[in-house]
Amino acid sequence: MLPPMSVSLVSQRLRELRKSLGISQEALGAQGFVSAAGWAKIENGTRQPSDELLEKLTDWMVKDSYLKARQKPRLLDELLSLKYMENLSPFVRRLARDFHQSLMDAAPLLRVAEPEAAYRAKRRK
Fold first, then answer.
1. Residue pair 82/100 in contact by the 8 Å Cβ criterion
2. Which of 11, 27, 76, 99 makes a 20 to 30 Å CA pair with 83?
């Protein structure tokens, strides 16, 4: 389910990603691209993540095997699209949110990122 209009889509998606990876805000803050307090502000929608921060986050996810390298461009494009979607008129934003939800329902590939080792183990079964 999508968040209420008051919380940005990118904030909601970043929270969903962090929780699906089982990582606390503190542990993510320890990675060095933003503090734990900064992550809390981003997830609460009081601060917008920079494009550079989103790039660093996806790079880190690949480096630490939370995300396969071929998935990185798709996730980064999704996060950037969600970020800039907030600049649209309310009607167009609502259409875009509905479209995004339909994509997530149809292709949940990145809904829950898995560590590479877990992914390989599932493929062997």
1. yes
2. 27
Q: What's the pTM?
A: 0.71
d(CA 122, CA 88): 40
Q: Which CATH number fits domain 9-124: 2.30.30, 1.10.260, 1.25.40, 3.40.50?
A: 1.10.260
pLDDT of res. 107: 63
- What pLDDT band is residue 5 in, cutting at 50, 70 and 90? very low
Identify the helix (H) or strand (E) that includes residue 48: none
- What is the domain partition of the chain in residue ranges? 9-124
Q: What is the mean pLDDT of residues 50-72?
A: 91
Residue 73 CA to chain centroid, in angstroms? 12
